[in-house]
Fold:
Amino acid sequence: MPVNVVQTNLEDILDFYFEKSPAKAGAHYLLSTIHDGNDAALTRMLRDYRTDPIIDPVEVVTRTSIDRLLTCYSVLEIASIARFIPPMTEIPIGKDATEILSNDRVSSYYREFYPTILPQLLIYRLKSGQGLKVSGQSSTDNSLIAFMSLDRFFVESLEDGPLLRMLDSYTVDGYRFRHVAELISQPEAFINALTEAPESRDALAMAAREFGQFLGFCGDLQKLLERIESEPLLQSAIWFHYGYWFNIIGSQLSKMLWQALETFLSWGDAQRKPDQAASQILKYVEDSKMTLTLLTSGRYAAPIQELMNGQPSSRFAG
Amino acid sequence: MPSQTHYVPRTLQGSDKPDRDVQVMFATNPGPKAILFIHGFSGKAIATWSDFHELLPDCSACADRDLYFYGYDGLRAGLIASASIFRGFLGRVFEDTGAFLAKNLPSGTTRPAGFQYEELTIVAHSLGAVIARRALLDATRSGKSWPTRTGLILFAPAHSGARVVELAVEATSRIGFLGLFASAARFKSPLIDELDRKSPQLANLLKETLESTEGGRNPHLIAKRVVIAEYDEIVFNDTFGNDPAPESIPNTTHTSVCKPRSDFRQPLVELEKCL
Structure:
């Protein structure tokens, strides 16, 4: 690929995932704290929230910015696998990433407390000068562009919305996911929540809208993964980008969505085309369940997981 | 090994409508032609078109065309207002191309001095077809010359009327069957009246289009191709003015008719026939 094209690809990725994202602040915080040698602050900031919850608003903001930085690094690793950007070892953000991801405290954060595969692959790439890569190129450019579009939708429409937080067991403005499921059981209330004017939407109405959008996103992701079956490492890497949702809490997420989906089956006859409604509902529910089953089955984890498990323990250890 | 034909989709620079809702894939080796997609009711510029943005770069006639995905509030904005904003956008693209591109091209990429779009194919779905028609008609009637450089390809156009509430419910949720339960919705939108089969806005659109195309004038106001779904519960498929008779894609619905996939390329084939 011409140099200017891969360079532009890199700039496009950095523009969205770094420059216009909290990731930039996350990188600044980590680099300055590392340079200051303030290990205590880093240890405190990057602690395991299960043993010591993150409540302080400033900490919440900083942790979010660090998570977004890891998201940025994950996308850069995916783009590197697809040879969509210049070699990470040759660009400035690669140098910063090496310093940040090599730090022991940061390393514990993405390896132990919140295991995230793609930053582990990236630091291996940065340190060894080698990394995973696709076997071909022609079709992966378009697949990468499709992934970028899909992920942009995820970031802009779902990532910070109430639905995913509810699926992650949080309460949002007094609502939990069971309230969304209850709403789905009432067709009229559910439909009116969907068409609520933006200014009067509460967290429940927003989650109701996001319910169908998230399942649509899952369907699009599954189709994308199927299209890149011939590039299993890229396929696996893209799946791991959403590993928190489909891997770490995959069974919980699938179970909750599955139960909510089945609620549709109890909807009565539609006033218009009642004969079609039952079959369309059944198809939607079955298709959505199949998608969730595939995404949470772990099959897409295998190519990278097996590679990591099959290597000497030091290889991906950073 | 084919090289990458388009850059990653980018949102136009600018915090105001419509730029913040428009995405573009600039060609890496650009020619003077472009394609613009304008969606129906769904709020996202690219989502409506499913895999178009992934499949188009493989289409040889598209490889050197910039691809625009125009977004707007298809649920709550009025028809005339949306058409006016779209007309303004097209005016900038055609009349102030240099400044427009300078602001939005990826850094390090340029276009030749005096670069102009010689041809912009507008691909419109559903309500987007009505907005595009109104915008081109108004621009033509106000004496603008750039509309002659456009061409219209319409998928399931709503220019003969639409059941707005059903579509609104489907579009907001991406749950296809919900439209069948739309009678429960309390949804309010000016479009419910504006896209009624007997609405004055649609009647005027037809009347003015017929006037403006009389005697073979302004052929750009006549669609090059109209593609409809076999099973459309949303729009009425009457032929509009002097448009060609519609081509139906089997086994499609109002929403799936404009969504090509790797295993269902018909919508893309229909577009390619006009390029």
